[in-house]
Amino acid sequence: MKYPINEVRKRFPALQRTYKGKQVVYLDGPGGSQTVVEAIHAVQEYMMKGGANLHGVFPTSIETMDKIGEAKEFVAALFNGKANEVAFGPNATTMMFHAARAIAKTWEEGDEILLTEIEHHSNIDPWRLEAEDRNVTVKYIPLNTETLTLDLSTLDQLITEKTKLVAVGLASNCIGTINDVKTISKAAKKKGAVVAVDAVHGIPHFYVDREDLGIDLLFSSVYKMFGPHVGLAMIKKELFDQLEFYKVVPSPGYTPDKMEVGTQNHEGIMGVTEAIRFISDLGQGHTMKDKIITGYEAMEKYEDYLVRPVREELRTIDGLTLYQADDSVNKTPTMAFRVDTMTPREFATRMCEDASIFLADGHFYAYRLAEILGIVDQGSFIRAGISAYNTMEEMERFVAAVKKIMKS
Ligand SMILES: Cc1ncc(COP(=O)(O)O)c(C=O)c1O
User: Residue of the nearest CA to atom 7 in ligand 1?
Assistant: First the structure.
């Protein structure tokens, strides 16, 4: 395994943290990754050197606009889109509510939208609430509880001439299942529906080609992929130009600025470029795109090397239920499980206090998924999510700690 894990770890200062005398193992990446040092420095440098608001004639304002422009170029390269299709905002959820409010203006009573049962609710409720306000029918692509994948067998019936929007996530933030976005978007396009994709759990793990996947509206969050708390949206130019966003009268009315209501988190945006550069640094090639693609390939291979033995071990532990699709299904290295003898909260507490392993418990806003699996009242899941900076030694520590707690 050629992956430069030692160099990678040096770039994440938080990995030095100890708890109760032991080095912390971070398995809470799906809730928010640790931050790469260059992104931390970029935030600090911006604030140390002098920030400013936009549209001024003086250096700090001009630099701010240039740097935000550069961050948009990097986001464009990340998703194979264009910089003038990128808007920043506080987080992915807010961007989805904002987009839903704009796009729903084009919906009429009797129209339909199609969502999925596997989603984080940020990609359900913004669309659903707008639909309910307008008597638009909401349908769901069902979860197959046996395979833990979306059941696409009735997709062609679910999408009709009346379907205005299909919203789906790249991957489940609980069980890691990677959804077949391409098949869903192809079916949507045939009927003229727009496709909104929640990329939040996908982008820390694999390359997302907006064009190849047929995505019209893409939403993501930089704090899940090694950077600061910044949300982003990338919307196809033709669609973006047509959308009327709720905004204050004097703010820009053109794409993409019209979506950026109020003053943005400029210092946070300074870290976006560096977060993306971390991924491209793992790759090779002459163009940024080549580096990003090969960087993701290196990361995916490494994460797969880490997660495989862990999944195998967890499957053999008596009293532990692992919620993972089988090996034929592509997954991120995010594992959800439950144990018979403890609630997820008790288990997560023991992992933290006994083994200095930080992992989270709950439904992680994939509420419908947890509800369908019938575990909401029992604390839902324990989630262990592997990130690009974890090590095999940490995996061994994790498995040993699970076994020890189960025995005690
Ligand atoms: C898959 C997925 N979608 C959306 C979100 C919401 O992102 P944000 O916190 O940026 O609103 C999350 C956050 O956990 C997520 O995991």
Answer: 92
Q: Are 128 and 102 in contact (CB under 8 A)?
A: no
Cβ neighbours around 292 below 10 Å, total: 25
**Mutation probe of ligand 1 site: the residue of 28, 88, 93 with most atoms within 8 A of C-beta:** 93
Q: Where are the domains of the chain?
A: 5-36+287-407, 40-280
CATH class of 5-36+287-407: alpha beta
In the reported structure, the alpha carbon of residue 198 is separated from the centroid of ligand 1 by a whole-number distance in angstroms of: 8
Q: Is the pTM of this model over 0.85?
A: yes
Q: What confidence score (pLDDT) does residue 291 get?
A: 98
Q: Ligand 1: which of 179, 205, 365 to mutate, most ligand atoms within 8 Å of CB?
A: 365
Query: What are the tens digits of pLDDT across the range 92-105?
Result: 999 999 999 999 99
120 lines ligand 1 (CB under 6 A): yes
pLDDT in tens, 265-322: 999 999 999 999 999 999 999 999 999 999 999 999 999 999 999 999 999 999 999 9
Angle value at C-alpha 221, between 28 and 91, nearest 5 degrees: 110
Domain covering 40-280 assigned CATH 3.40.640.10 in the classification:
yes
